[in-house]
Specification:
alpha/beta; Rossmann fold; Single alpha-helices involved in coiled-coils or other helix-helix interfaces; six-stranded parallel sheet; five-stranded parallel sheet
Length: about 425
C-alpha cells in the first residue's frame, strides 16, 4: 500500500495528482469487438462459451428459472430480506417524487406547446457480481424502471462457477417484479442485451455499473445505436474534511470505496495538515480487519491525500476532479452546497456515510465516474423516459406566427419551408 500525499499542489499539477487508473483503450476495444462479433454470429452458443471462459460456469440454460427465483427467497435470510424491503421502500419514495407533470405552455396566442413523458419500452440492467454480489444495484435500477413503466426489463448478472446467482440478487429482482433474469456477466452480457440472441431480448437502453470492460462494452454498443445510462466505470470517492472531521469516520469512508475493486480510487482533501496523518493511521488500523483488505490495498495504491491552502482552492480542485461520490465534513457546509458543480452524489456531515447512498437512504447509487460527473447525472427516473414534444397552432396563431417563419426560412434559403407556411396563409385568406 503506497497512498501518495501531495501538499499545496499548484493548479498545473492537479491533473497528474488526480490521474485515475486506466487500461489501454485500444486493447479494451479490441477485446470487446471480438466478443460482440461472436455474439452477433453465434448467439446463445457464444454466450455460453464466454461464460465458461470468463466465469468458469458451464450453462445449459441462460435464463434463471421460476424455480430458481422461488428458491432464492427461501435461501435469503429473513433479516436481509427485511433490509432489502426497507431500502426498496426508500428508493421507491425518492424516485416516485421525480414523476414529471405535463405542462402545456401558450407561447403566444394560438400557439400551444407541451411535452409528454413516455417510458423507454425495453431496458437492460447490468448487475455486477464478480467480487461482490451487488443486489443493491438491482433495487437502484429496477425500481425506477418499474415506476417509469418500462414494458420489458431484462436483467443480466454473472453466475458463480456452479452456474448459480447469489440468492439475494434474485430475491431483490423478484420482490420488485423483475423476472427476466439471465446468468450473464461482463462484455457478453452487454453484447447480449445490445444485439439480442435466441434467449436474450435486445433492448433500447442499457443501465448499470461495471469494470473497465463493461464500460468499454457499453460505450461500443452505443455506437451501434443502443443508448446507455452513462460511462460508469470503477468506483471512486473524494472526502473533504476540516478540523471538525473525524479521522475514523473518514478512514472508513475511504476504505468503503477501496474495497470495491483494485481499480477503485479514493481521494482525501483537507486544509488541516495533522488530519492527514490521523486519517492515514486510522486507515492502517481499519484495513487490517477487512476481509477484502488485499483488494483495498491495491485500490489505495491509486489514491492520494491532498493538503490545500484554503477552502476556495479545495473547492476548485474538487470541481476539477468531478468525483462520483463526494463526502463533505465541514463547518462551512453551506459554501460547499452552493459551489459544488461537479459531483455524482454528495454526502453532507459526519453522520452521512457514503454507504447510506449505496444501499438504503433512497438516492440512486448508479453514478458517473472517471470525471463524467462534469457532464452526466446519476441514474434517475428521467433516465428511463423520453420526452416527446407536441404543438398545436390555431388559424389565428398561424396568421401571426407564419410571417416570422417565412422571413426566417427565406433568410436560410429553405424555400420549401417557407412555402409550407405560405400555402396555409393563402388558404386562410
Amino acid at each position: 500500500m503506497s497512498t501518495k500525499t501531495s501538499k499545496y499542489p499548484e493548479r498545473e499539477q492537479w491533473d497528474e495528482i488526480l490521474k485515475r487508473p486506466t487500461q489501454e483503450k485500444a486493447n479494451l476495444e479490441s477485446i470487446v469487438s471480438g466478443v460482440f462479433e461472436a455474439i452477433k454470429t453465434n448467439g446463445d452458443q457464444a454466450l455460453k462459451e464466454f461464460t465458461a471462459k470468463f466465469d468458469g460456469a458451464h450453462l445449459e440454460q441462460l435464463q434463471v428459472t421460476k424455480t430458481e427465483l422461488a428458491a432464492a427467497s427461501k435461501d435469503t435470510p429473513l433479516e436481509l430480506k427485511n433490509a432489502i424491503d426497507h431500502a426498496a421502500r426508500n428508493i421507491e419514495a425518492f424516485h416516485k417524487a421525480q414523476v414529471a407533470k405535463e405542462e402545456h405552455v401558450i407561447t403566444q396566442p394560438g400557439v400551444e406547446c407541451w411535452r409528454k413523458v413516455t417510458p423507454i419500452e425495453k431496458v437492460g440492467l447490468y448487475i455486477p457480481g464478480g467480487t461482490a454480489p451487488l443486489f443493491s444495484t438491482v433495487l437502484m435500477l429496477a425500481i425506477p424502471a418499474k415506476i417509469a413503466g418500462c414494458k420489458e426489463i431484462v436483467l443480466c448478472t454473472p453466475p458463480n462457477k456452479e452456474g448459480k446467482i447469489n440468492p439475494a440478487i434474485l430475491y431483490a429482482a423478484s420482490s420488485i417484479g423483475c423476472t427476466k433474469v439471465f446468468k450473464l456477466g461482463g462484455i457478453q452480457a452487454v453484447g447480449a442485451m445490445a444485439y439480442g440472441t435466441e434467449s436474450v431480448p435486445s433492448v433500447y437502453k442499457i443501465f448499470g455499473p461495471g469494470n473497465q470492460y463493461v464500460t468499454a462494452a457499453k460505450q461500443m454498443a452505443s455506437l451501434d445505436g443502443v443508448a446507455i445510462d452513462m460511462p460508469a466505470g470503477p468506483s471512486e470517492v473524494l472526502v473533504y474534511a476540516d478540523e471538525t472531521g473525524n479521522p475514523e469516520f473518514i478512514a472508513s469512508d475511504l476504505l468503503s470505496q477501496a474495497e470495491h475493486g483494485a481499480d477503485s480510487q479514493v481521494v482525501f482533501v483537507t486544509c488541516v495538515e495533522r488530519l492527514i496523518d490521523d486519517v492515514k493511521d486510522a486507515v492502517k488500523r481499519q484495513l487490517s480487519d477487512l476481509p477484502r483488505k488485499e483488494i483495498a490495498k491495491k485500490a489505495l495504491d491509486n489514491s492520494v491525500y491532498i493538503l490545500m491552502k484554503n477552502e476556495k482552492e479545495a473547492l476548485a480542485l474538487i470541481n476539477e476532479y468531478g468525483p462520483e461520490h463526494l463526502i463533505i465534513g465541514a463547518k462551512n457546509e453551506a459554501l460547499f452546497i452552493d459551489q459544488i458543480t461537479n459531483a455524482g452524489s454528495v454526502f453532507l456531515g459526519n453522520y452521512t456515510p457514503e454507504s447510506a447512498g449505496d444501499y438504503a437512504s433512497g438516492t440512486n447509487h448508479t453514478l458517473p465516474t472517471n470525471g463524467y460527473a462534469k457532464s452526466y447525472s446519476g441514474v434517475s427516473l428521467d433516465s428511463y423516459t423520453k420526452k416527446i414534444t407536441y404543438q398545436r397552432i390555431s388559424q389565428e396563431g398561424l396568421k401571426t406566427l407564419g410571417p416570422v417563419i417565412e422571413i426566417m426560412a427565406e433568410a436560410e434559403e429553405l424555400f420549401a419551408h417557407k412555402n409550407a407556411v405560405t400555402l396555409r396563409l393563402h388558404d386562410l385568406k
